[in-house]
Write a structure and sequence with these properties.
With 162 residues, this protein is an alpha+beta fold. It is built from two helices and ten strands; from the N terminus they run ααββββββββββ. Strands 1, 2, 3, 5 and 8 form a five-stranded mixed β-sheet that branches. The chain has a three-stranded mixed β-sheet with strand order 4-10-9, with no helix packed on it. It has a two-stranded antiparallel ribbon with strand order 6-7.
């Protein structure tokens, strides 16, 4: 029994690190190469329409902003949020709601959201993450459901045109 306990203790890089990675499964992501390759490259961020009518939103948190700085989603459909951090621990919140998503480097945080009606929400960071913490925020714009499919893919990560 003692031997079984000692092996993981002395072979951290050989056993524990791959084991932890396996336990985390697909939620593991390399914080240092987020912008270069994989799910969180810039043109993959923002809102994506899923075949079943729901949407997936991908974001990055980094000192001291959320990317994209504005998210556009349709009202009344399930929203699958996937977000990771490029540096510190952050917390994405939606003013006026109970939604709160803790964001950690190296891991993809997932949350299921839904907004019944069109509207606008501030999305401030609520985890102290450094000097620029109090200015760290994004914005959520909820548009009527029938209006959303008409948007071009390049409008997914921006509210500028609306
Ligand atoms: Cu990010 Cu506080």
């Amino acid at each position: 029994m003692l031997v079984l306990c000692l092996i993981p203790a002395t072979r951290y890089n050989l056993i524990d690190v791959p084991l932890l990675r396996w336990l985390r499964g697909s939620r593991h992501v390399d914080a240092l190469s987020l912008h270069l390759a994989g799910e969180f490259v810039e043109n993959n961020l923002g809102t994506e329409q899923d075949p079943d009518g729901s949407v997936t939103v991908r974001m990055i948190a980094q000192q001291y902003l959320f990317i994209p700085h504005c998210i556009l989603i349709p009202a009344g459909v399930p929203v699958h949020l996937r977000i990771t951090s490029a540096d510190a621990v952050h917390s994405l919140t939606f003013d006026g709601t109970d939604y709160k998503v803790k964001v950690l480097p190296g891991t993809i945080s997932e949350a299921q959201l839904q907004f019944a009606r069109p509207g606008e929400y501030k999305m401030p960071c609520r985890e102290f993450c450094g000097a620029g913490h109090y200015a760290m925020r994004s914005e959520l714009k909820v548009v009527p459901r029938e209006q959303f499919p008409a948007l071009q893919p390049e409008e997914r990560g921006s509210c500028a045109a609306h």
